[in-house]
Amino acid sequence: MTTPEIPQRSWSQRWHVKGVGWTALLVALLVGSSKMTGVDVGMFFSNFDQFTNLLVRMSQPAWSYVPIIIQPLYETIQMAILGTTIGTVFAVPFAVLAASNLVHNQWLRGIIRLILDLVRTLPDLLLAAIFVAIFGIGSTAGVITLAIFSFGMISKLFYEVIETIDMGPLEAMESVGASKVTIIWYAVLPQIMNQFVSYFLYTLEINVRASTVLGYLGAGGIGVFLQRSLSEFDYNKTAVIILAMLVVVMVIDGVSNHLRRVLL
Amino acid sequence: MDQQPIISFKNVNKIYNNGTVGLKDINFDIPRGEFLVVVGLSGAGKSTLLRTINRMHEISSGEITIEDEPISSYKGQSLRLLRRKIGMIFQDFNLIKRSTVQRNVLSGRVSYYPTWKSVLNLFSAADKDRAIRALERVNLTEKLYTRADELSGGQQQRVAIARTLMQDPKVILADEPVASLDPLTTQTVMDILKRLNQEDGITVIVNLHSVALARQYADRIVGLRAGAVVYDKEIADVTEADLTKIYQTA
Ligand SMILES: Nc1ncnc2c1ncn2[C@@H]1O[C@H](COP(=O)(O)OP(=O)(O)OP(=O)(O)O)[C@@H](O)[C@H]1O
Ligand SMILES: [Mg+2]
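Predict the joint structure of the above. Result:
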């Protein structure tokens, strides 16, 4: 009797060298980075009373402030929607070109991904500072910053979704004699639509929050008011702004949940 | 039956990039209107053979001609036109699950439209009507607006056949179309293919695992082993012993 040919697991496979190695590296990085950056977890607890102090001062929201912030809040939401939409429009073709199951040309894919990596590397605060310098103080700078930020984020989220789809329908459409664009429209889009919508809304939510921070740099919206209330130690107004933002984020979340159920 | 072959393989070889031999020196003709069944063990090269016919797989050497035209030079639009006249049915149906039956069936027609019209759903009234008639032929008109993933496997395969009919194909390739269906549904699907073959004169090439089915439906059986044709007989000449031999490991 001959012994059946069982493939031998290599030494590294048998001792799970990869898994162990990665875990060790991760732990080392974690410990190392907290040492190097001087993060003191203890400080978080010892200075906790200052935090509670702040909370107490924010506990009586100045409701009279509400009518004043409606307009800038509206502007913030507009900026976020506009920025996210513009970013998404540009992100879709890039996501398609970056997906390894749709584009087999490694060079093209590599270049597209490099561009996307570059865009994601740029900090949004830097972008805002640049665009405020170019377009002056106002919402134009904010919208463009958010558009670029959304573009980088959405294109990555989208191409990762595209890479998980079932390739069967694409094969069928190919065999029917459909063109590339038609294949994507008929066989790819229906499979990813609801995830696209929920990622779009998630980015919108992030952008609503981000645009408040951008307001600090003069990029329009409610951020200007947030900064003013904080610098004047008017924490009761700060509380109103935060609550208003909470409502906006909750509404977006609700819309997202609803749409996902409908589109499923 | 026309004497002119619709498809012809001449010294066709296919070696996959990793060195696996897919097809080895394939030589045979398929007459117009034939119902050909390809049998063979798993890995024998049945799917490979089928997919070279509509250029879903490229061959390494030799030549395949369809209606006397060598197909290897087709590119872009001409390749799409070649595929338009060759329908393909898959083991797991490959429908767009979240779309309606109607949209799935109409998607078989897109090669008759410029891309922008397909994308904007601008199908002519005649083609919408054609979709209903295609569904009539597979007995599923009442499912027109049902989502594909709400159908049973057998129903999905019938929708896939209706989609193929929208191409107005001269050839239908079916790669184990009944492998994931129960015996009763299997008969229904095979009967439909046989009817398209007899009533519409469509040349049908089916890969099957079941010898019994092959004998029931085929005009001719081709056996593959390790990428080579080891058997090729008209159904009248096929004996039980022959088929057992194909399925013996050698
Ligand atoms: N993409 C590929 N790359 C490399 N080798 C492949 C590829 N596809 C198939 N093969 C190999 O080619 C041979 C023939 O495969 P094929 O899928 O045509 O067999 P089959 O007869 O259809 O089998 P089954 O009945 O299991 O579907 C097999 O040895 C398979 O491993
Ligand atoms: Mg196969």
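Chain B has a mean pLDDT of 91.
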